[in-house]
Amino acid sequence: MRKYRLAVPGPTPLPPEVAAVATLPIEDERTERYSAVFMRVIDGLREVLRTRNELLLFTSSMTGAFEGAMQNLFSPGDRILVVNNGAFASRWTELTRRFGLDVVEVASEWGRPVDMERVARAVAATPDLVAAVAVHCETSTGVVNDMRAFGEATRSVVSIVDSASGVGACELRTDEWGLDVVVAGCQKALMTPPGLAFVSLSPDAWLLHRRATLPRYYFDWDKARDAMLADIPGTPWTPAISLISQLDVALRGLLDEGVDETLARHVRLGRMARAGVLGMGLELFSPDDDRGAAVTAVRLPEGIDSRALVGHLLAEYGVQLADSAGPLAGRVVRIGHCGHVDAFDVVTVLSAFGLALRDLGHPLDVGNGVAAALRVTSPTLVRGLR
């Protein structure tokens, strides 16, 4: 028997109680009982995002909600700044241009956090700028950008944050940091199958929305807001009923653990992953820094192709890691450690990762990596093994 072990940045492993909800009978979303579940999810998401702003939920991939943000905030020709240091930030550049916006880029090297002072200077130097967008956790590289500094750098415009793999794993204080729009989804640190996306909106975001003229229908924020203000709050269109029920259970588990405790657990898991990689004599691609709590990117040794390694890991050890794309294709592997993950999951993944590298001809000491990871979480245990 070989278990399948999912260790990508998303989707992530599900808690058993979340998976079990999918087997329950479907119910009508237009009832007061189901509406209570829906609103509990809305309130739980606000708590995780640390916001009192309005929050709208959509049945969609996160890319759908990103597109909805374009439709609801802008008019053709509006000028927007995009902070670009990875594949998902590049997607925002493409998206904004598709909607006929005037895009100003602040580009940085892949694998390095963005210097937010450059962003502040670009905002100050760009006339008629209405908004700026940045990715919180750039999943393609494992880099986490400083959202507090981004909020400060963009005070004069509407700030938009893509927190797809950040929310629930990396610190995010929406209101305190002055973040106007935060867009994310359910399938990463929130431990729910893909299919739900949400957006939190500040009063300034609603003001920009009021003057926006791009066409919208399914993702119309006014329709979504009106449905939430109805006698029986809900969505304007049929929602993913079972997914919302699953997200309800996942959020209750996260909030029972505590938001601060959940974030601290992810920090420890990130430290373990990085220590294990370095302990095997390998090189990190993402920074060795506690912000990297959701995913660790590893630069592979010369002669090892990441696509071959990912395939071998799955075929021989049942462990699923993520390859990289664009300029990193073939050279970088990403280890996800967010959501329903504990210390021994990380140890297992590191063990298989090291064994697979040895299988492909790269000599290393797997035990050194495992011991280094364990030392992060339990120094006493590691000393006892010697």
CATH fold call of the largest domain: Aspartate Aminotransferase, domain 2
Radius of gyration: 21 Å
Given as residue ranges, the uncertain stretches (5+ residues, pLDDT < 50) are: none
Kindly provide the name of the CATH class of the largest domain: Alpha Beta
- Strand proportion, as a percent range, falls in 15-25%
Largest sheet: 7 strands, mixed
- How many DSSP helices? 14
Give the CATH H-level superfamily of the largest domain.
Type I PLP-dependent aspartate aminotransferase-like (Major domain)
Number of strands: 14
Structural class: alpha/beta
- Helix coverage percent: 40-55%
Helices and strands, in N-to-C order? EHHEHEHEHEEEHEEEHHHHEEHEEHHH
Kindly give the count of domains: 2
What is the average of the pLDDT values? Answer: 96
CATH architecture of the largest domain: 3-Layer(aba) Sandwich
The general outline is globular
Q: How would you write the strand order of the largest sheet?
A: 2-10-9-8-5-3-4
Distance between the termini: 31 Å
Can you walk through the features of this model?
By secondary structure, the protein is α/β, with parallel strands linked by helices. The protein folds into 2 domains: 16-256, Type I PLP-dependent aspartate aminotransferase-like (Major domain) (Aspartate Aminotransferase, domain 2); 258-385, Aspartate Aminotransferase, domain 1 (Alpha-Beta Complex), CATH 3.90.1150. The protein has helices at residues 16-21, 32-49, 62-73, 87-98, 116-125, 147-153, 203-211, 221-228, 241-257, 259-279, 306-317, 343-359, 366-377, 379-385, and strands at residues 5-6, 54-59, 79-84, 102-107, 129-135, 137-138, 143-144, 158-162, 181-185, 196-201, 283-284, 295-299, 319-320, 332-336. The strands form 4 sheets. A 7-stranded mixed β-sheet has the order 2-10-9-8-5-3-4, sandwiched between helices. Helix 2 (32-49) packs across helix 9 (241-257), helix 12 packs antiparallel against helix 13 (366-377) and helix 13 packs across helix 14 (379-385). The longest helix is centred in the C-terminal third of the chain and has 21 residues, at 259-279. The two termini are 31 Å apart.
